[in-house]
Design goal:
The chain is an alpha+beta fold and about 230 residues long. The protein has helices at about 5-30, 65-80, 85-95, 100-110, 120-130, 130-135, 145-150; strands at about 50-55, 55, 155, 170-175, 185-195, 200-210. The strands form 2 sheets. It has a 4-stranded antiparallel beta sheet with strand order 3-4-5-6.
């Protein structure tokens, strides 16, 4: 067993590893072929609408940081649920609630140049169910209240890209390394799109090599910009 894996296992704990194993099994079960199906899984028809979570109303007036805060809490609950399938499903539904399903489908389909031929609902399910495994090592860093989260996040527009019209931003959040080592900080990057309804909704979750903005603190999201992904997924 490699030193890297031992470090990850200590950080995740038993429940986290089981969650990652289950999620990996879901992804493996999908197969790599375009026509692979997700037999036995409930694939929702996700729509964009107002969301109430963590005491917040995520409507047209909600800031990107508020949406990210709710997402990270849902991901944390997903990972900590371990093998409790009902709790995991409830946490997953909260993640679906703050995503932009149409933009996810269109964005990845364009980025992969016709390789994403699965139907819209299946493709959104594939992508959103990977968010918790992607960030699973860092959920202990998500145990903060909204104001603390605001103080740690920075918001900036994504790089302009004509192929992906619409207003998009990225929210960066530095977190400690998976084993808490000094100097092992990483940056969680969440990309959001402003839906036609005016709601900010998530379309990609990942990591950045460095913060999008210098220093900590909240920055106002742009209100009239056309931007898109800084790079392909």
């Amino acid at each position: 067993m490699s030193k890297h894996f031992r470090t990850r296992r200590r950080s995740l704990g038993r429940g986290g590893l089981l969650t990652l194993a289950i999620a990996a099994g879901v992804w493996y079960g999908c197969g790599c072929k375009d026509d692979a199906r997700l037999a036995g899984h409930r694939i929702p028809k996700v729509t964009v609408g107002p969301v109430r979570d963590q005491g917040l109303e995520l409507g047209a007036q909600a800031a990107p940081e508020e949406v990210v805060f709710v997402l990270l809490r849902a991901i944390r609950d997903d990972v900590l649920a371990g093998v409790d399938q009902q709790a995991r499903r409830q946490a997953l539904e909260r993640q679906f609630a703050v995503c932009d399903p149409d933009y996810i489908y269109d964005w990845y389909r364009r980025a992969y140049d016709r390789l994403a031929v699965a139907d819209r609902d299946e493709w959104v399910y594939r992508k959103v169910t990977l968010w918790a495994p992607t960030l699973g090592c860092y959920v202990d860093s998500f145990d903060f209240d909204l104001e603390t989260g605001r103080s740690r996040m920075s918001v900036s527009p994504t790089s302009r890209h004509e192929s992906w019209p619409g207003e998009t931003v990225q929210v960066d959040l530095p977190v400690g390394g998976p084993a808490g080592q000094a100097g092992a900080e990483v940056v969680v990057r969440v990309r959001l799109h402003r839906h036609a309804s005016g709601y900010w909704r998530v379309f990609q979750v990942g990591f950045a090599k460095r913060r999008g903005l210098a220093g900590a603190g909240r920055a106002s999201a742009p209100t009239a910009a056309t931007s898109g992904p800084a790079s392909s997924p």
